[in-house]
Amino acid sequence: MGLISGVFMGMIFGIALMAGWRHMMRYRSTKRIAKAADIKILGSLNRDDLKKICGDNFPIWISFPVYEQVKWLNKELSKLWPFVADAAELVIKESVEPLLEEYRPPGITSLKFSKLSLGNVAPKIEGIRVQSLKQGQITMDIDFRWGGDPSIILGVEAAMVASIPIQLKDLQVFTVIRVIFQLAEEIPCISAVVVALLSEPKPRIDYTLKAVGGSLTAIPGIADMIDDTVDSIITDMLQWPHRIVVPIGGIPVDTSELELKPQGKVAVTIVKANNLKNMEMIGKSDPYAVVHIKPLFKVKTNVVDNNLNPVWNQTFELIAEDKETQSLIFEVFDKDIGQDKRLGIVKLPLIDLEADTPKEAELRLLPSLDMLKIKDKKDRGSITVKVGASKHSFNLFK
């Protein structure tokens, strides 16, 4: 009897234990599902929603980071940097060197890379924000920092001057890069990549220039020329909405949807200038005006000899691609033997223009668009312009 009762009691105890375990697991599962639902609801709330719910008890430690931290990606990038750098050097040389030639400043006969090495120090990605996920595309912004040890030498040639190697030293880059991946069904699953620099915050690229085995004074103004060329390339070709489209995988793909398309044309009349700065020792300046939206496509007026108050009244049409970010750049030069001297420059944002309302404005000329570079505070005169939508402006001012 004792044996039978022991077996019976053991079975009862085992069944009870199993039933209790099953009940506990079901209870825990129900609680987890309830917590997951609560967390999902909290995850959908923004800062304002939480403040309404919590009132004055809103915890100050709660934050909504704009960029996701990617420490793991920086570790992997450091490991892979020698291979990434080799590939990036090829892309930079193929993409940027033609731009250096196109934007080559007057007086320079050749401007290309003599040496290009991105060094051993990998960039640092401070964070990534996915902007949009739509059919066939992923758009993300990458907070990019780089204070590396690259070796970049530009070969610069000028008329009647031997080639001078100029080294870019102490290069530092601080910017937010917008990357768009166009997806594909075949491996590597990405058919093209779009790369651009966001205008806000403004891209910051710092460097110093040093002549290798020579002096920068051999070509007067070469440092400013290179600075202006780099700035023009960034603003004109790399700063959003401008972009570089790189096909990937070696398979021909249609990238037309990724390219920046013209929105329309702007009609610009350069009327006159007043009280220009005289750059001549004898006589007066011989001024002419230049206007552009993209530095690669400049148009200019006729030269008015020996006059500080020239009248041009010449009209041009310029193609615009994005009125939110682009501007009309007006420059006035003194025609001279050799290199012309800039008398002043000024910018008129396209966003200031209105549909069907031509705008006439007298704009004060500045020594530079970079306020940090302005040391000469003297008045440089003004330029009077008329600006309006061309009849071919289709959707520019909609």
Automatic annotation (TrEMBL):
Query: Subcellular localization, per the record?
Result: Membrane
Keyword field: Calcium, Lipid transport, Lipid-binding, Membrane, Metal-binding, Repeat, Transmembrane, Transmembrane helix, Transport
Keyword Electron transport in annotation: no
* C2 domain: residues covered: 247-363
Q: In which domain of life is the source organism classified?
A: Eukaryota
**Topology with respect to the bilayer:** Single-pass membrane protein
Principal location class: membrane
Q: TM segments?
A: 6-25
Descriptive protein name: C2 domain-containing protein
Q: From what organism does this protein derive?
A: Citrus clementina
